[in-house]
Amino acid sequence: MMKTVKEGMVTIKIPSFDKVSSKAPVFYNPNMELNRDISVLAIQQFQKEKKSRIKIADIFAGSGIRGIRYHVEIGGVESVLANDINPLAVEFIEKNSKLNNAHVDITMEDANILLRKNRGVFDVVDIDPFGTPSPFIESAGYSLKKGSLLCVTATDTSSLCGTYKKPCIRKYNAVPLKTEYCHENGLRILAGFTSLTLAKYKKYIKVRLAYSSQHYMRLYLEIGKGAAKTDKSLKNNIGFIYHCHNCLSRSLEYGMLPILPLECPQCGGKTDFSGPLWIGELEDENFIKGMIRLLPEKRLNKKGETLKLLKLLEGESGMPPTFYDIHKICSKMGISAPPLKKIMEKLQEKGFKATRSHCKATGIKTNAPIIELKKSIKSIHNLTCHGCNNIVGPPHF
Ligand SMILES: C[S@@+](CC[C@H](N)C(=O)[O-])C[C@H]1O[C@@H](n2cnc3c(N)ncnc32)[C@H](O)[C@@H]1O
Ligand SMILES: [Zn+2]
Fold first, then answer.
1. ipTM of the assembly?
2. Structural domains in the chain?
3. What is the spatial distance between Cα 129 and Cα 125, in angstroms, rounded to a whole number?
4. Nearest to 178 by CA among 65, 41, 272, 37
5. In whole angstroms, what separates CA 67 from the centre of its chain?
6. 170 carries a ligand binding annotation
7. Would you say residue 395 has pLDDT above 60?
8. 292: pLDDT strictly greater than 50
9. Could you report the per-residue pLDDT of 85-135, keeping only the tens digit for each?
10. pLDDT of 25-64, one tens digit each?
11. Ligand 1 pocket check: which of 22, 127, 130, 138 to mutate, most ligand atoms within 8 Å of Cβ?
12. Is residue 125 a contact partner of residue 137, using CB atoms and an 8 Å limit?
């Protein structure tokens, strides 16, 4: 039995399956359509900036839908290589390429071998494996050329988010942190690990776009080259996040070792830490603006969702790492949560930056310290609440 799928401008066929699983004869996940839609826009924007024709490698191609979409939907493409280790997947990539009249190059190799054999060939490498991309980053570091784009998906979010600490240390050589901003933290661990892995090849990353959605994380990294620039990139972007579970304050430390005393500077409580991770920029405002401008000319089923996400990510550029969960803070303060918009306005009135986080609907990113945020929340609460001032007791800050 066959199943027909329509996404973007392509139609593909795959063997029927009961549920999305790595055990399916040929893997296809309809929930990743947004991932593929955003990839089409991001790679198109990259190609536009490059002003030359690009060679793309979709090295975990599955049914071929991703690579075929890149071939059909992205302008200025010189070639697309679709690779998979599964022989049945390769058969379907061949069928689906013909079905869409897309002249895709097809290989059946282990992704690491393919990257090693094609050093300096591709302008875009897309790594979309089952679970962790960690075993493939080293070969990507060897293979990628200056000015190329590395697109990485990770679906092992429980490791990156710190539900399980040991697998994160094993796969990403970093200590995770189970907090309200654990998804952003996970993106930072993945970017930090990639940056440190590439460094031995005197290559560094510039994060053009990073987001977490549903069950996966996705990074778009532009590759730079040169020993001095790599050293500088590590110095300016790798470090640690410290988090106080008591008063919810955070701080950053640049470097390869956690050296701050593990005591909260705000309340004296014990702090937890995460890292080494990427504490530099995760969003490139101009890149995202470019992607938004490209939206009207693309045929995407998830256009609305894509725009909403890109707008949130655009707002996050230039903001410091981590965000505050207003519900968590208010529950600690013993008051009901005021609307997010009002809190952001209050912070902005006081001269702080404030924006929403794409990771959490109740999250606010701000450069205000926790004490200022709590003061702002309290003042809005006092203006609007006439019933509970006497029962909440003294403010908790
Ligand atoms: C998550 S699926 C890819 C989905 C596809 N990119 C898409 O958007 O629909 C991962 C694919 O990687 C293939 N694979 C697993 N290990 C591999 C390896 N070492 N080298 C190449 N392909 C591999 C699997 O057969 C599977 O088709
Ligand atoms: Zn504290």
1. 0.99
2. 2-316 (3.40.50.150), 324-384 (3.30.56.70)
3. 12
4. 272
5. 20
6. no
7. no
8. yes
9. 999 999 999 999 999 999 999 999 999 999 999 999 999 999 999 999 999
10. 899 999 999 999 999 999 999 999 999 999 999 999 999 9
11. 130
12. no
Q: Which ligand is nearest to the CA of 89?
A: 1
Residues 169, 175 contacting (CB under 8 angstroms): yes
Is 244 assigned to a binding site? yes
Measured CA to CA, the distance from residue 65 to residue 373 in angstroms comes to 46
Atom of ligand 1 lying closest to residue 86 CA: 25
Instruction: Report whether 267 belongs to an annotated binding site.
Output: yes
Ligand nearest the Cα of residue 268 is 2
Residue 276 has which token pair? Answer: 């080494």
In short, whether 312's Cβ falls inside 6 Å of ligand 1 is no
| pLDDT of 23 | 84
Mean pLDDT of 276-298: 98
Ligand 1 lined by 62 (C-beta under 6 Å)? yes
Query: Would you say the CB of residue 130 lies under 6 angstroms from ligand 1?
Result: yes
Please state the pTM of the whole predicted model.
0.96
Question: Is 110 part of any known ligand binding site?
Answer: yes
Would the annotation count 264 as a binding residue? yes
Query: What residues pair up with 57 in beta bridges, in sequence order?
Result: 81, 125
Q: What is the mean pLDDT of residues 271-289?
A: 97
Q: Express each pLDDT in 293-352 by its tens digit.
A: 999 999 999 999 999 999 999 999 999 999 999 999 999 999 999 999 999 999 999 999
Which residue CA neighbors atom 10 of ligand 1 most closely?
129
Question: Two tokens at 240?
Answer: 């640690």
| Ligand with the closest atom to the CA of 27 | 1
pLDDT at 392: 39
CA of 375 to the centre of ligand 2 (A): 16
